[in-house]
Predict the 3D structure of the following.
Amino acid sequence: MGSTLPNWLGGVTTARVATYCVALLMAALFLYGLARFPDAPLHICASGYCGKQGQPHTLSEYTDFKVWERALFICWPVGMITLFLLQRWTSRRK
């Protein structure tokens, strides 16, 4: 049997809690970018930096977008692999 958390949490296994945490972090990262950069992707254009609808953006917004994009491209594959491994680990323990 897998390790469980205290009874006040209903005996939920730590693997299940880890799964929820990873999924929540992945969703939060994605939704942050969706709300913060609705006209993504931002790119360099003739007037400076533009969104996909041609709206101008500052250098600060462009660098913020690039940081979020890099974080998304790193965290999502790592999160998916982690979720896969947690699922395999919990299914083998049953």
